[in-house]
TrEMBL record:
Catalyzed chemical reaction(s): ATP + H2O + phospholipidSide 1 = ADP + phosphate + phospholipidSide 2
Any one annotated GO CC term: plasma membrane
UniProt cross-references to PROSITE patterns, sorted A to Z: ATPASE_E1_E2 (PS00154)
GO biological process, one term: phospholipid translocation
Domain P-type ATPase N-terminal: 5-69
Name used for this protein in its record: Phospholipid-transporting ATPase
Cofactor: Mg(2+)
Domain P-type ATPase A per the UniProt entry, residue ranges: 99-161
Active-site residues per Swiss-Prot or TrEMBL entry: D380 (4-aspartylphosphate intermediate)
This protein's UniProt keywords: ATP-binding, Magnesium, Membrane, Metal-binding, Nucleotide-binding, Translocase, Transmembrane, Transmembrane helix
Similarity annotation: Belongs to the cation transport ATPase (P-type) (TC 3.A.3) family. Type IV subfamily.
Name of encoding gene: LOC109723143
Length: 1109
């Protein structure tokens, strides 16, 4: 499908939408129904609505409907208010953009209109520093060369100015002609690809003939960019409103489900099934008791014949009575906690990058606890592990090495003499360095020249050539490039006409330019690119062994290499090729593929001029960060587009892998399926055999082999990924990065992807957690990520501190929320056996609502401040992260412990209360208040016991809330119409009440304290040892016992990934916040039939990478 845009033709401007931008989710009319629909799409909300509706049936409700409707309305109101506020802010933003005034040509005259009134086909006029209101095709600028400069930071995050040029068909049109211009633009339907625009333009006479002019993204001004350093520019609107590329890119990303959220959902489902069983059993028992025993009691009167639904009354009563098993406030509490986790990351001064003034930022507030369960980190290299600050260091020209002795080619006397003596090979080499790029030179008023480059490599090459007296001094839109070269003190100016540019793509891995020497009239093809892209295009008669050795030597030093080549073109050869290139450039279908095919027809028989070597230094703290995170049990994969040797050298420098003999690299190479299959088979068998040895194994795979593997041998490669903790993937494309992330996710691993450039966005979005670095390549990765940081070293604190604390806090909050709801529910169930199994509630509606919303929810929210260990201890002992990775604080076993605790506490509270107050002198309200008081006392001590650190806020929340319970009930007891008149006054004056509370606390907390003491004393975990050492203020950082314990814990947890030990209790450990790990999934059989099946001899250091069903 394609779009036809008629330029400056008002009769055809109603074919497409106007430029009104709308990012609103709701309107005044649909807000209430749409918001309610979205909230009730969740199962838990549907469940609570059903319960609330059933409570309206007075025959079956054991409590006032307000006990459910009140919290439900409050929760819905809070969610709706938040949505309304967010949507109102979006409306204000849209209103500001829509009502901005712009210049548009109407009937040959420029007029002021609002941006929302722009139509497709309008000619829009921009002035310097104006924001582009819609997607435009540039047709005129104030510059005689036909260029303009735009800032695209709002679009792609890149801060460097971009150059945009008018199409050749519009060259020479003055301002008056631009007001009367007529023509047609044929372009694709709207899409969100901001780096691609494939279209054609044809102007109508008298402006030009009917020749078709191809258009690319370089001929466009996209919405939200800013016009800079250009007096004015004008363009034709091709996409407007929400159909612009930016508008198409907007949208709400798919929500990510954390491992803890998945576990909570499973536990909620289990509780729901348990509730159904309880309701069915008690409902059946209640109906039996009613038909047998109840009719014998003189005070119970039932009609002889009841309605048809009589058998459902008691089961439905119990359904309403047991509905509080699933806490209604858990989602709101978790959302609030997660928002605070994100704020803690934003406020963390230790993650503020002083160099770039960049703070850490959490864009996704819902997945902080997943940071504590990361098992695989997939990282880019350039700009992520390195600074992306390129420095030209060495080069090899015509087989001669420069810079090997001094370490800096720019200071090599031999190279300087060669430049001074006008050595042809050196001059050609510098010419290609200077010309073959997209760098824009900018002259200041003082005459100084600075460069704007989209690639740091190109910037380094052009600056290096300038230091060697070949200075790029100008480029203009008439496609004339001026190069000023100070050669042999002549100071002559050389001019080259750029005839065509063969742009770089990730598939071609090279860039070429066709230039014409204005002095001699000769035409040359200049090329630069990766060695595997340039060497195959070399002249068959040229010896390139020296250049290949140079590439290998530089790669061993961790330097980035580029190969340069050129050849002279015959004029008839160029003319013939130029026709094919122009035809391919103007096609609307498969333009990139056809251009690549045509480029290949010209890029052959190159004379290889030399190799450049650029240094990209490691960021500060990278080796230490990787070493600490590897100690934490996290596996690392490096995914880079660099050469294999360079990637390996960087991996060695940053502790990614170990050198021989401690480490061993296994290589997977090949160009054909058979070669790759044999290589993969050999590596996989070696990995199986040698994993029992104390040696760090890692595999290395290149992009060619990886492409074959992901298509043909994915299952075998997945098995290899499980066995290996480290991988280096070289020459990979952005899509392959995303595929590797998906492969690890398919094995139930929690993945974190980190990168800094636009080519990392797909990988970042695919991972469970995406982290972007605000680097020199712009903010595109940071904006697409869940978290953004200034430097790689901050990843250590993000995972070990924020991730671990968030996991621990969420684990406690979620299980405690179920515990306090189950406690009150089990008391109700036990009471039903003393009330004829009739579904009667022991507690009144107000007490139940206050218990769920106020008495028990506020204290536990302060767990957001709890720290089981200090940040310093956590950072110095990263091995303890294994407890989070293995899910030892939230799993069915730990939940069973909290479930058992709620049953035991319910029995204690009810039996002590009933024995103390079940006599003829006690009222029902007194019994209810005593039981409720017992629950409140237990809650206060449980939360206090589970807290590991205390602040004034936590103490006030826990014990201030405890005092508030009595204050509120004293006030209620003083109101005659409240139904609890004088109850609390009478109870508090009775010594038996306080004795009852003491007994409840003593019997309820005694076993918990005893088990905890046993665990801490006789079976302490590594965390327990660190806690004891911290509290005793001993030398916690040099304890030999602690180090051995940490090593044994790592080994134990590794083996727990394979099978859960049956000897460990699954009941008492949850009471101590320590439980076996959740089971994991194993990979299936190998994809290779010829792979030998061998007994598994995987050591404990690799066992944790396997997962059982």
């Amino acid at each position: 499908m394609k779009r036809i845009v008629y330029i400056n033709d008002e009769s055809c401007q109603d074919l497409y939408c106007d430029n009104r931008v709308s990012n609103r989710k709701y309107t005044l009319l649909n807000f209430l129904p749409k918001n309610l629909w979205e909230q009730f799409r969740r199962f838990m909300n549907q469940y609570f609505l059903l319960i609330a509706c059933l409570q309206l049936w007075s025959l079956i409700t054991p409590v006032n409907p307000a006990s459910t409707w009140g919290p439900l309305i409050i929760i819905f109101a809070v969610s709706a208010t938040k949505e309304a506020w967010d949507d109102y802010n979006r409306y204000l933003s849209d209103k500001q953009a829509n009502e901005k005034e712009v210049w548009v040509v109407k009937n040959g005259v420029r007029k002021h209109i609002q941006a929302q009134d722009i139509c497709v086909g309008n000619v829009v006029w921009l002035r310097e520093n104006d924001e582009v209101p819609c997607d435009l095709v540039l047709i005129g600028t104030s510059e005689p060369q036909g260029t303009c400069y735009v800032e695209t930071a709002a679009l792609d995050g890149e801060t460097d100015l971009k150059t945009r040029v008018i199409p050749p068909t519009c060259v020479g049109l003055d301002s008056e002609q631009l007001h009367r211009i007529k023509g047609v633009i044929e372009c694709p339907n709207p899409d969100k690809d901001i780096r691609r625009f494939v279209a054609n333009m044809r102007l109508f006479p008298p402006f030009i003939d009917n020749d078709i002019c191809p258009l690319t993204i370089n001929n466009t001004l996209l919405q939200s960019c800013y016009l800079r350093n250009t007096e004015w520019a004008c363009g034709v609107a091709v996409y407007t409103g929400n159909e612009t590329k930016l508008g198409m890119s907007r949208g709400i990303p798919e929500p990510k489900l954390t491992a803890m959220d998945a576990m909570i959902d499973k536990l909620t489902g289990a509780i729901f099934l348990f509730q159904i069983v309880v309701v069915v059993v008690l409902g059946f028992a209640g109906n039996v008791w009613k038909d047998t025993e109840a009719r014998k009691q003189w005070y119970v009167k039932y009609p002889e014949e009841g309605p048809w639904y009589e058998l459902l009354v008691i089961p439905l009563r119990f359904e309403l009575l047991c509905s509080i098993m699933i806490p209604i406030s858990i989602k709101v509490s978790l959302d609030l906690m997660k928002s605070l986790y994100a704020k803690f990351i934003d406020w963390d001064e230790d993650m503020f990058d002083a160099e770039t003034k960049t703070p850490a930022h959490a864009a996704n507030t819902a997945i902080s606890e997943d940071l504590g369960q990361v098992e695989y980190i997939l990282t880019d290299k350039t700009g992520t592990l390195t600074e992306n600050r390129m420095i030209f260091k060495r080069c090899c020209i015509n087989g001669i090495f420069f810079g090997n002795e001094s370490g800096d080619a720019l200071e090599d006397v031999e190279l300087l003499n060669a430049v001074a003596n006008n050595i042809p090979h050196v001059i050609r080499f510098l010419t290609v360095m200077t010309l073959c790029n997209t760098v824009i030179p900018i002259k200041s008023k003082s005459g100084a020249i600075s460069y704007k480059a989209q690639s740091q490599d190109e910037d380094a090459l052009v600056k290096a050539a300038a230091q060697l007296h070949m200075v790029l001094i100008g480029k203009n839109g008439n496609i004339i490039v001026e190069v000023f070269a100070e050669i042999n003190f002549n100071g002559s100016i050389l001019q080259y006409e750029v005839l065509d540019i063969l742009e770089f793509t990730s598939d071609r891995k090279r860039m070429s330019m066709v230039v014409k020497d204005c002095q001699t009239g000769k035409i040359f093809l200049l090329s630069k690119g990766a060695d595997e892209a340039i060497f195959p295009c070399s002249n068959s008669g040229q010896q390139i062994r020296t250049f290949m050795d140079a590439v290998e030597q530089y790669a061993q030093l961790g330097l980035r290499t580029l190969c340069l080549g050129w050849r002279e073109l015959k004029e008839d050869e160029y003319i013939e090729w130029s026709h094919m290139f122009k035809e391919a450039s103007s096609t609307l279908v498969d333009r990139e593929w056809r251009l690549a095919e045509v480029c290949q027809r010209l890029e052959h028989d190159l004379e290889i001029l030399g190799v450049t070597a650029i240094e990209d230094r490691l960021q500060d703290g990278v080796p230490e960060t990787i070493e600490i995170l590897r100690k934490a049990g996290i596996n690392f994969w490096m995914l880079t587009g660099d050469k294999q040797s360079t990637a390996i050298q960087i991996a060695l420098l940053c502790n990614f892998i170990s050198s021989e003999p401690k480490g061993q690299l296994l290589f997977i190479n090949g160009k054909t399926e058979d070669e790759v299959a044999r290589s993969l088979e050999r590596v996989l068998l070696t990995m199986r055999i040698t994993t029992s040895e104390p040696k760090e194994l890692a595999f290395v795979v290149d992009g060619w082999a990886l492409e074959i593997i992901l298509k043909q041998y994915k299952e075998a490669f997945t098995e290899l990924a499980i066995l290996s903790r480290t991988a280096i993937c070289c020459r990979v494309t952005p899509s392959q990065k995303a595929q590797l992330v998906e492969l690890l996710k398919s094995c139930d691993y929690r993945t974190l992807a980190i990168g800094d450039g636009g080519n990392d966005v797909r990988m970042i979005q695919q991972a469970d957690i995406g982290v972007g670095i605000s680097g020199r390549e712009g903010l595109q990765a940071a904006r697409a990520a869940d978290y953004s940081i200034g430097k790689f070293r901050f990843l250590k604190r993000l995972i070990l501190v924020h991730g671990r604390y968030s996991y621990n806090r969420t684990a406690f909050l979620s299980q405690y929320s179920f515990y306090k709801s189950l406690l009150i529910c089990f008391i109700q169930i036990i009471f039903s056996f003393l009330s004829g199994i009739s579904g009667t509630s022991l507690f009144n509606s107000v007490s139940l609502m206050a218990y769920n919303v106020f008495y028990t929810s506020i204290p536990v929210l302060t767990v957001v401040l709890d720290k089981d260990l200090s940040e310093r201890t956590v950072m110095q002992h990263p091995q303890i992260l294994i407890y989070c990775q293995a899910g030892r604080l939230l799993n069915p076993s730990t939940f069973a412990g909290w479930f058992g605790r709620s049953v035991y506490h319910a029995i204690v509270v009810f039996l002590i209360t009933i024995h103390a107050y079940a006599d003829e002198k006690s009222e029902m309200e007194e019994l209810s208040m005593v039981a409720l008081s017992g629950c409140i006392w237990l809650q206060a001590f449980v939360v206090t016991l589970e807290m590991n650190s205390f602040t004034i806020l936590q103490i006030l929340a826990i014990w201030g809330n405890f005092v508030a319970f009595y204050v509120i009930n004293f006030i209620v007891s003083s109101i005659p119409s409240a139904g609890m008149y004088t109850i609390m006054f009478r109870l508090c004056t009775q010594p038996s009440y306080w004795i009852t509370m003491v007994l409840i606390v003593a019997l309820g907390m005694g076993p918990v304290l005893a088990l905890r003491y046993f665990r801490y004393t006789y079976r302490p975990s590594a965390i327990n040892i660190l806690q004891q050492a911290e509290r005793s203020r001993g030398p916690i950082y040099s304890l030999g016992m602690l180090e051995s314990q940490l090593k044994s814990v790592e080994k134990d947890v590794a083996s727990l990934s394979i099978n859960q030990p049956k000897s460990r209790s699954s009941v008492y450990e949850p009471l101590l916040s320590d439980s076996p790990t959740a089971t994991r999934r194993s990979i299936g059989p190998s994809a290779f039939d010829f792979f030998q099946s061998m007994p598994s001899r995987i050591s404990s250091s690799y066992m944790r990478n396997c997962k059982d069903n």
